[in-house]
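User: Okay, second chain of the day. Same drill as before: sequence in, structure tokens out.
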Amino acid sequence: MRAVIQRVSRAEVRVGGETVVEIGKGLCVMLGVTAEDGEAQCDYLAEKVSNLRIFEDGKEKMNLSVKDVGGGVLVISNFTLCTETKKSGNRPSFTLAARPEQAEPLYRRFCQRLEGLGVEPVAHGIFGADMEVLIGADGPVTIYLDPAAAGK
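Assistant: Same drill. Structure tokens below.
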């Protein structure tokens, strides 16, 4: 799994010009599932995201998690994070990405794990849809997480 986490003042998903979900202050997580991923990687990443201390405390230090500030998380399935460009030159290859029948249950599990870890609200886009994602970047603060790189 790969995740790009963006601290946001707000985030919104539109499909066909209509807003389908939105959050206020919190995190927007672009989540890519690779063919090598399973429940262990999913659970590890959900715990990491829920506890990531990237919000400022009273001393202007990034010391608080999304749970600490009462923020929400918007999770967007994004297979394009699973690119391989070493062999394909300038055209990305998506052969690392999990097939939808593997990716969707892990995507849903990730959202459920966040809720189970006390994140509220957890919103999500529509799996497989062509979405317009509007992000009010806060900071901007952007973090990339890859459990495989961490040996998980």
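Residues 2-145 form a domain with the D-tyrosyl-trna(Tyr) Deacylase; Chain: A; fold (CATH 3.50.80.10).

User: Thanks, on to the next one.
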